[in-house]
Amino acid sequence: MAVGFVRPARPDDAGEIARIQLATWRVAYRRVLPKHVLDEIDEAFLALRWTDAVTAPPTGRHRVLVAVEQNAVEQAVQEYVVGFAASGPFDDGALAADEDHTPERENVAAVTDMLVEPRWGRRGHGSRLLAASVDLWRGDGFDSAVCWAFDADAATRKFLTSAGWAPDGATRALDVDDLLVPQLRLHTTL
Q: What does each of the 190 residues of the chain score in pLDDT, given as a tens digit?
């Protein structure tokens, strides 16, 4: 029987987080981002960045969580990290191109990444990651949250809107090797 749960990421999770991130991007975003860009991303570099995020977050309100699937097989328990979520206080990375950073956003959490590896999808891991994040955000004094999603990423938009998130009207385009990739920002009240 499989059991899913969420826990804070540990330093030894960084390599698996990087692998999940890269594998998910290459599957979920293969029609959104240029193939050669996805092929050139260095997994070891991502792992170092995730190690830093886990071991030396910029503030105590920055979090990296992992979703774990646990299976009991012949009297042994196997655990697999299957997804992750990273968030922190609203900062310049959460801004649209035409916005200024204002003090009234200091109680807004910003999701920087939330991914579940596609082969582990549809098992509740994304919902558990989101619920655990919301609990931590409330405990950290946040009263709302934002998350950017690619316009072409219908799955993420559907997941977030089904959980009560809605577009807030902000848009931007990421410049990925001279290709502008449009995004929209969603928000929710906690």
A: 468 999 999 999 999 999 999 999 999 898 899 999 999 999 999 999 999 999 999 999 999 999 999 887 777 888 999 999 999 999 988 988 888 777 678 899 999 999 999 887 777 899 999 999 999 999 999 999 999 999 999 999 999 999 999 999 999 998 998 889 999 999 999 9
Output the CATH code of domain 2-189: 3.40.630.30
Distance CA 93, CA 102 (A): 13
Give, to the nearest 10 degrees, the angle between helix 43-55 and helix 14-28.
Answer: 130
Residue 178 is given by DSSP the state T
Q: How many CB atoms lie within 10 A of CB 77?
A: 9
Q: pTM here? A: 0.93
User: Residue 22, class by beta-carbon neighbours within 10 Å (0-12 exposed, 13-18 middle, 19+ buried)?
Assistant: middle
In the chain, where the domains are located? 2-189
Task: Give the C-alpha separation, 110 to 104, whole Å.
Answer: 14
Rounded to whole angstroms, the Cα distance separating 75 from 176 reads: 48
